[in-house]
Write a structure and sequence with these properties.
Length: about 180
């Protein structure tokens, strides 16, 4: 069974409001290693994966960049088929969470990289998916640059401290 639910994307600040509208969901948390630990037990999540890395696109001394293992963990979490929504969040809901939603949607919909990227821009003017995460996923999925090219085509999002919550469809095919 392929989930008909979208991926919900939000910032940490928007997480309680988005979560309150869902009866149950799988939660993907993407925060910096120094981020304060939160009590997630008040949320109606069924599964929870917390990954810690900084929102950077080049290796920087003293900071933790996303790597192949991080992106593989995101893909594996997204591949777990359940009939419930997925809720992805990072600090601002702009870069790491948008990249994660994009790579999960691309994993499920090969050949739709540009359509998914365009839909990201339609759904949120602020999204600027972390290009390093996209590149790592592109390599892992063997997309030969299609994912990176699609994200570069939509360009950088509007400047914002925090993105507004949005939904991204998980299914592009009608079969």
């Amino acid at each position: 069974m392929t989930s008909q639910h979208p991926i919900y994307v939000t910032s940490l600040g928007g997480l309680p409001n988005v979560a309150a509208r869902l009866d149950g969901f799988d939660l993907l948390t993407l925060l910096s290693p120094s981020a304060e630990l939160h009590d997630w037990t008040t949320l109606a999540h069924q599964r929870h994966l917390r990954l810690t890395f900084h929102d950077i696109v080049v290796a920087t001394p003293g900071l933790t960049a996303p790597d192949g293992n991080t992106v593989q963990a995101i893909l594996d979490f997204g591949r777990h088929e359940r009939d419930c929504p997925m809720l992805v969040h990072c600090w601002a809901g702009i870069s790491r969470s948008s990249a994660a939603a994009y790579v999960i949607a691309c994993d499920r919909n090969p050949g739709f990289e540009q359509a998914i990227a365009s839909e990201l821009r339609t759904r949120s003017a602020e999204v600027t998916p972390n290009i390093l995460m996209v590149q790592l996923a592109d390599d892992l999925l063997g997309r030969n640059g299609a994912m990176v090219d699609a994200i570069r085509r939509i360009g950088r999002g509007a400047e914002a401290f925090e993105g507004a919550p949005y939904q991204l469809p998980l299914r592009w095919r009608l079969s």
